[in-house]
């Protein structure tokens, strides 16, 4: 039996239940999760080979590319609703779950429309946080089940509020969530102008916080929402205006990637107290819904530990049960009817259904560091200890003589040097036994993995094929941009290298998949060096023998399109200017063809042939 090296990448941890390695040593997708039958897995390498081969109906696609599996999206939505339905049934909860997808997670047309279509039977709705997202959501929700929520979050001006009221006039269930007290005045004014009665919610600024990066804008210093006492003042103002019936929803969000269910329970309990106070003490008998916001996490590192920003210690069932139990207990204690439960779970819905495919161009051994007097493990340890001692004030360097600001500068200076030496020490330990290879990839980190560059977010990565062969190279990934930050040298499991195979052109292309990447990366993508987005391939399973159909295959943004985003008139500012000079030099026949090809292809490398020595 062939060896399976998928465990090297912990695919059974982060990949459960959607990803596995098949008998051919290829990464495959189990589009129906645990219900996927043997033989129904879709081979990723087969998709790549089909997408990069021209046929009579479509052109050959360029790398990099994103593969989308809408069947996985359908399964995620069904699993979320099943988790809440079971929790509601077994706890005796007296209402229902009705969620929304936050459009900001990935605004791609197919994804938003799929969310509405696949969630129709569940009255699944959308959440918008800006005017463009609101317009997008208004359009898509015309196909939703009547009553599906359109939750309108984010800071609002009169135009935003007017659009939300227009959505209600269209028969959509738009709810304007107040982030600041003054937004209520805008709602009152626009409602009067348009003659449309709103439904409003209020966002609560809870004291419950989560640790790490994603909790930095939560708690009492949070960016959004109102503390409880201010929420009660909003209710009093509405009551004085005889408009208390407008208020129907309480919303909260403690941050993305909530690591453990005890925090989920605590936040839902705190919000339920506010909800019950609105009903019992403020007399808001029209309250119907508690929106628990986002935070349902993805276990990117597969440890199920919740010990870092890359991990959560629960699944859908535990998450749903924590919310349902917390709200039920509080409402029963206060004698308040159980509200409709809503969540804005975008990351956990979108992440699994999409992967980025990167093409390896070449692999070059990283040179060893020169002997600069601090290259051995012992020398690096000694230098770090010396610097550490300098961070401690001496007996003569008392607080009276050293200001806090100068001490901070001292710490910054030596701390940065210690950090660099620490990285060098880590690499030294690794390279004592292994050479590190720089794999040059057809990739822009800034365009395809902006969260890695921006917040050091890590994604599971692994080769698409040859997984029945031991990966012998320790690799870092280098992109094609002209930027020193254009590299990937941190991986899940606190690793500084990724195990890869030697590139062998005789075996065909060598591809690396970036998994669980369907959330935020396309929304946050930028155009550094004018490298744009990837080609897109949409794959649906046919239900048997691993067969699939490529439902759509679209080339990524061309050079012409990318230049146009920088406010150039490509024909006037680029093409005609080059043509005029080339004709002066009598080389337009040659130059014109090259310019035409350059403008109408993607800016990434095409048909790259690695050096024969690699």
From TrEMBL:
Source superkingdom: Eukaryota
Name of the protein described by the UniProt record: Uncharacterized protein
